[in-house]
């Protein structure tokens, strides 16, 4: 079984990826893992990627695509299939993936798209706050302090948010993701591959819905 998983930051891709890998024994392929392995093993594409990273430059699409193709050409993929996570990020990468799958004799079975209202994701992702005194981390929805305004660890009352966790920054990040992912989802919808899953439900219910699709 060969799959893609898509969804905005905070939608629960990581949790459902773990569920799919555990229950269907496919190879979980994330962009970060692929890059690290290619550079560690000093593959042709890995060395090329390293040369850009060493200069502080973005790795171009053709190198990223090359690293993905190197990984998909390995024997364990033919035996057990894959779950691609974090790739493709652009419509150009999606077209490149189409081409490489044909060249490798592989076929995509489904694109699992976890849907969550962006406003809910802003609350999920911007809820983290940190005690200024001891660094203990909390979340206003999922892990609040036991006594409002008082750190559980050190008893201090002053908290702050990292710039990345502030609502305006989170919303901007989501807007960029929505803009990039929309043409990719449209592309795979046209191919009849997209399976939408409601990500606002209880985690176990999301997993059940994923299982119903894959079974």
UniProtKB/TrEMBL annotation:
<comment type="similarity">
    <text>Belongs to the adenylate kinase family.</text>
</comment>
<feature type="binding site">
    <location>
        <position position="134"/>
    </location>
    <ligand>
        <name>Zn(2+)</name>
    </ligand>
</feature>
<dbReference type="InterPro" id="IPR033690">
    <property type="entry name" value="Adenylat_kinase_CS"/>
</dbReference>
<feature type="binding site">
    <location>
        <position position="128"/>
    </location>
    <ligand>
        <name>ATP</name>
    </ligand>
</feature>
<keyword id="KW-0808">Transferase</keyword>
<feature type="binding site">
    <location>
        <begin position="10"/>
        <end position="15"/>
    </location>
    <ligand>
        <name>ATP</name>
    </ligand>
</feature>
<protein>
    <recommendedName>
        <fullName>Adenylate kinase</fullName>
        <ecNumber>2.7.4.3</ecNumber>
    </recommendedName>
</protein>
<comment type="pathway">
    <text>Purine metabolism; AMP biosynthesis via salvage pathway; AMP from ADP: step 1/1.</text>
</comment>
<feature type="binding site">
    <location>
        <begin position="137"/>
        <end position="138"/>
    </location>
    <ligand>
        <name>ATP</name>
    </ligand>
</feature>
<feature type="binding site">
    <location>
        <position position="201"/>
    </location>
    <ligand>
        <name>ATP</name>
    </ligand>
</feature>
<feature type="binding site">
    <location>
        <begin position="57"/>
        <end position="59"/>
    </location>
    <ligand>
        <name>AMP</name>
    </ligand>
</feature>
<dbReference type="InterPro" id="IPR027417">
    <property type="entry name" value="P-loop_NTPase"/>
</dbReference>
<feature type="binding site">
    <location>
        <position position="131"/>
    </location>
    <ligand>
        <name>Zn(2+)</name>
    </ligand>
</feature>
<feature type="domain" description="Adenylate kinase active site lid">
    <location>
        <begin position="128"/>
        <end position="164"/>
    </location>
</feature>
<feature type="binding site">
    <location>
        <position position="36"/>
    </location>
    <ligand>
        <name>AMP</name>
    </ligand>
</feature>
<keyword id="KW-0067">ATP-binding</keyword>
<dbReference type="Pfam" id="PF00406">
    <property type="entry name" value="ADK"/>
</dbReference>
<keyword id="KW-0479">Metal-binding</keyword>
<keyword id="KW-0547">Nucleotide-binding</keyword>
<dbReference type="InterPro" id="IPR006259">
    <property type="entry name" value="Adenyl_kin_sub"/>
</dbReference>
<feature type="binding site">
    <location>
        <position position="173"/>
    </location>
    <ligand>
        <name>AMP</name>
    </ligand>
</feature>
<feature type="binding site">
    <location>
        <position position="162"/>
    </location>
    <ligand>
        <name>AMP</name>
    </ligand>
</feature>
<feature type="region of interest" description="NMP">
    <location>
        <begin position="30"/>
        <end position="59"/>
    </location>
</feature>
<dbReference type="InterPro" id="IPR007862">
    <property type="entry name" value="Adenylate_kinase_lid-dom"/>
</dbReference>
<feature type="binding site">
    <location>
        <position position="31"/>
    </location>
    <ligand>
        <name>AMP</name>
    </ligand>
</feature>
<dbReference type="GO" id="GO:0004017">
    <property type="term" value="F:AMP kinase activity"/>
</dbReference>
<keyword id="KW-0862">Zinc</keyword>
<feature type="binding site">
    <location>
        <position position="151"/>
    </location>
    <ligand>
        <name>Zn(2+)</name>
    </ligand>
</feature>
<feature type="binding site">
    <location>
        <begin position="86"/>
        <end position="89"/>
    </location>
    <ligand>
        <name>AMP</name>
    </ligand>
</feature>
<comment type="function">
    <text>Catalyzes the reversible transfer of the terminal phosphate group between ATP and AMP. Plays an important role in cellular energy homeostasis and in adenine nucleotide metabolism.</text>
</comment>
<feature type="binding site">
    <location>
        <position position="154"/>
    </location>
    <ligand>
        <name>Zn(2+)</name>
    </ligand>
</feature>
<dbReference type="InterPro" id="IPR000850">
    <property type="entry name" value="Adenylat/UMP-CMP_kin"/>
</dbReference>
<keyword id="KW-0418">Kinase</keyword>
<keyword id="KW-0963">Cytoplasm</keyword>
<feature type="binding site">
    <location>
        <position position="93"/>
    </location>
    <ligand>
        <name>AMP</name>
    </ligand>
</feature>
<keyword id="KW-0545">Nucleotide biosynthesis</keyword>
<comment type="subunit">
    <text>Monomer.</text>
</comment>
<dbReference type="Pfam" id="PF05191">
    <property type="entry name" value="ADK_lid"/>
</dbReference>
């Amino acid at each position: 079984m060969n799959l893609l998983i898509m969804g905005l930051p905070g939608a629960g891709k990581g949790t459902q990826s773990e569920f799919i890998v555990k229950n269907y024994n496919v190879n979980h392929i994330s962009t970060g893992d692929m890059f690290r392995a290619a550079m560690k093993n000093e593959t042709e594409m890995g060395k090329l990627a390293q040369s850009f990273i060493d200069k502080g430059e973005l790795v171009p699409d053709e190198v990223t695509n090359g690293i993905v193709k190197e990984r998909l050409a390995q024997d364990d993929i033919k035996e057990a299939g894959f779950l691609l996570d974090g790739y493709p990020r652009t419509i150009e990468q999606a077209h490149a993936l189409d081409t490489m799958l044909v060249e490798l004799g592989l076929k995509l079975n489904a694109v699992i798209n976890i849907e969550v209202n962006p406003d809910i994701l802003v609350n999920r992702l911007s809820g983290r706050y940190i005690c200024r005194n001891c660094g203990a981390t909390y979340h206003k929805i999922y892990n609040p302090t036991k006594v409002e305004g008082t750190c559980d660890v050190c008893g201090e009352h002053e908290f702050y948010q990292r710039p990345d966790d502030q609502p305006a920054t989170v919303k901007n990040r989501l807007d960029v993701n929505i803009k990039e992912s929309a043409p990719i989802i449209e592309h795979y919808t046209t191919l009849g591959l997209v399976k939408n899953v409601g990500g606002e439900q209880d985690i176990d219910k999301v997993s059940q819905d994923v299982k119903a699709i894959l079974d």
